[in-house]
Design brief:
There is one protein chain. This protein has helices at 16-27, 32-38, 44-53, 55-64, 66-81, 114-124; strands at residues 83-93, 100-110. The chain is of the alpha+beta class and 157 residues long. Among the domains are: 9-64; 83-130, no CATH class. It has a two-stranded antiparallel sheet with strand order 1-2.
């Protein structure tokens, strides 16, 4: 944690080396609360106030968080759809040279996670996958009944 004299504390963080440190923390995936703590701020609300007041500061943090946010989204997508990966189980090394002679790998499959599928569907396509269905209305704004079409019975039955 860096200690700075109180008079004009924000000036040490919204430009120069201070801003570079904040951007580095954001790129590493730290939360706003963690960044504020690293800056030595007693309250995270001060950090949020600076983001509102100083657009360059806010934009720098937003841009720095782009990569960790994309990595998070990719991980969530992989978890939702399932994925395969190779795991090295054993490496056999030549005793004389110390070089690997054979590397044994196993392919592993991570099954899709239904909870993550629901989460992503609700957040990415809320109009289609919401908990409460949208009320159906006619052209005059009157509520209409939901019609469910069932297949007709086979006359042979």
């Amino acid at each position: 944690m860096i200690k700075v004299a109180r008079g004009g504390l924000y000036q040490n963080w919204i430009q120069g080396k201070g801003l570079e440190m904040v951007k580095k923390w954001a790129k590493l995936g730290l939360t706003d609360e963690q960044i504020a703590h690293n800056m030595g701020l007693k309250s995270v609300s001060t950090y949020y106030e600076w983001k509102k007041r100083f657009t360059e500061f806010s934009e720098a943090i937003k841009n720095a968080k782009t990569i960790p946010n994309l990595e998070l989204e990719n991980s969530m997508f992989d978890l939702a759809t399932g994925n395969c990966y190779e795991e090295i189980t054993r490496t056999i090394v030549d005793i004389k040279t110390g070089e690997p002679v054979r590397i044994e790998k196993i392919k592993r499959k991570v099954p899709p996670n239904p909870t993550m599928q629901i989460f992503l569907a609700k957040n990415r396509m809320p109009e289609k996958y919401r908990d409460k269905p949208v009320e159906q209305t006619d052209a005059y704004g009157n509520e209409t009944d939901t019609v469910v079409y069932l297949p007709e019975k086979d006359p042979k039955e």
